[in-house]
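Sample intake sheet
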Amino acid sequence: MYLKKLSHILILVFLTSFPVLLQAGEAETRFEEGNAAYSVGEYDKAIEIYSEILAQEGNGSGLLYNLANSYAQKGEVGRAILNYERALRLSPSDPDILGNLAQVRKDRGLFIEQPGKVSKFFSTLSVDGWAFLAFGCLFYLMIFLLLRLKYRYFSRSFTVSGVCAAFVLLLSMFGVAYSFQTYNPLVVVANGVKLQVSPFEGATSTGAVEEGRLLFPVKQHGDYWYVVDRSGRKGWLKIDVVEPICSLP
């Protein structure tokens, strides 16, 4: 009786997992087909297959990396950089992704603009780093206030440390907000893009933006984004000429 029940359970487990295994096998087969197409220079076919897998299975750093390589071979530098950046969000230390991204930017002269002093300062830590620092300061301030309620007198140095912790907490909150904003830039995926002084058709241009350049969204108006780059240059451009590295709500 026990063996019969066990066999029924195993059959049920197999039947419920079989569709998942079958789907995974199909995705693996399609991935190999994409790799084969890439190896013989059929980049359009490789892009189609990789994009299909992404739509069905979701993001994977290896898949995004191969898709980026395909776009790079086609000369579509904007979409190549977009997908390299997406792959880096999943594997931030991968040397192949970092190396290919740097090479594409070098080949197109897309050197990263030198950030201003404020940007450089807040870029010293990641979102997680600033959040961890803020949490540490908050914890210290909680202890500080509890001791302040229990004991009447404090040494001057201890009081100064509480004030410093409050200042660092405030600074860390700005750091979290800044890092979060710059974590998801827009990538220019079209040629001949120009910044405008206003979000209207035919508005005066303030200069061109190269395909593959990273821009940071500030606000949206209709079919336009108001953006800023690392050097502080600002302007409006159409939504359909850029894509976010991470999905926007």
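Comment: Residues 186-244 form a domain with the SH3 type barrels. fold (CATH 2.30.30.40). Helices lie at 2-39, 43-57, 61-74, 77-90, 95-107, 117-122, 127-150, 156-183.
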